[in-house]
Amino acid sequence: MSTTSQLTTFSDLYGDLISRVRENSGTTAATTVAKRYVNIANQDIYLLGAEKMPWAERRATITTHERYTTGTLTATRGSTAITGSATAWNTANADGALNMRAGGRITIAGQQDVYTVVSVASDTAAVITPAFIGDTASGLSYAYFEDEYSLASDFSRPLDARAFDTGRNIKLLGRQDFRRLYPRNRVPTTRIRHATILDLPPSGSTAPVRKVQFAPPPSDVQFIHYDYVTRNVVVTAAGAAAENFTDDTDEPILPLRWRHLIVYHALFNWYRDRKDDPRSQEVKAEYEQLKERLLGDSEVGQQRPSVAPRAIIYRSRAKRPWRGGARSGFDTAGEFDRMEGDF
To answer: Model pTM?
Structure first.
């Protein structure tokens, strides 16, 4: 990096940090610590107020699954295996999705109980959980539907805390409220009203598993577009998104004009962990001031807070001052000019 240019890459950031704390840049231990602090600082910037940072916004689409009821099935009390007749569970439908998929839901013979599909082995064989509790029978009707859908792999949190899809007005609920309103989410409809974000146990890797659950479950195929905040706040030289800096040429998604903010936060962590309280507090104050400026940075066309009086009322009374009631006309105290009173 040129000594006169703005901080750009990972090496610029941790190199600047090492320089500010007067450490030897050739020391492996100091470089390792500096890299860790820079990664922590880069993530921490997005903990609060990320919805005000347009460069962290992403959009994705969920394609819902249509309800499937073709054929009948045989279920045995106490067993998790179900056998279909004239079914095509493992066949793709017109939209390219399998008619039945692991993680989907199924109700059998119109019962209130909802089972989860564990696996689908063929067009006529599947496994559910928990074990079937009805009477053993064949020729049973069933209804397969899906109410949980995977979110984008880099999903951190919704952009809007109140609505999942503003176009369809799907309102977001907390998990407790969602479970209270929909203890048995079993009746698919074409109108989705609510959604909640689920944090599920890791499956096959350490990557977090986050899904959205809809209620009532969709009964047909719909495109649901949603906006979210990404957790991939780094981009490699090849243009690939990543959560953390790895190579020296990696860059933060933070705009160039704000990248020095990462160094200030890392510098605060450095001084704090070394019990240099006076310096840590000084740097923290400067970081917080810069962070406020960052969050207040306006885009072209962005709305700003404003006071909007009900001007139509005052305009109407000004045109017809002696109409509309006893107080419509005279104002000897200047209330009308100050937009006060009931004129």
So the answer is: 0.82
90-101 pLDDT, tens digit per residue, is: 999 999 999 999
Q: Is the pLDDT of residue 290 over 80?
A: yes
The residue ranges of every structural domain in the chain are 10-45+236-295, 56-64+149-230, 72-145, 308-343
Q: What does the H/E/C string look like for the chain?
A: CCCCCCCCCHHHHHHHHHHHCCCCCCCHHHHHHHHHHHHHHHHHCCCCCHHHCHHHEEEEEEECCCCECCCEEEECCCCCEEEEECCCCCCECCCCCECCCCCCEEEECCCCCCEEEEEEEECCEEEEECCCCCCCEEEECEEEECCEEECCCCEEEECCCCEEECCCCEEECCHHHHHHHCCCCCCCECCCCEEEEEEECCCCCCCCEEEEEEECCECCCCEEEEEEEECCCEECCCCCEECCCCCCCCEECCCHHHCHHHHHHHHHHHHHHCCCHHHHHHHHHHHHHHHHHHHCCCCCCCCCCCCCCCHHHHHHHHHCCCCCCCCCCCCCCCCCCCCCCCC
pLDDT value of position 340: 63
124 closest CA partner among 136, 138, 114, 111: 138
Kindly tell me if the per-residue pLDDT of 341 is higher than 70: no
CATH fold of 72-145, please? Elongation Factor Tu (Ef-tu); domain 3 (2.40.30)
39-83 residue pLDDT tens: 999 999 999 888 889 999 999 999 999 999 999 999 999 999 999
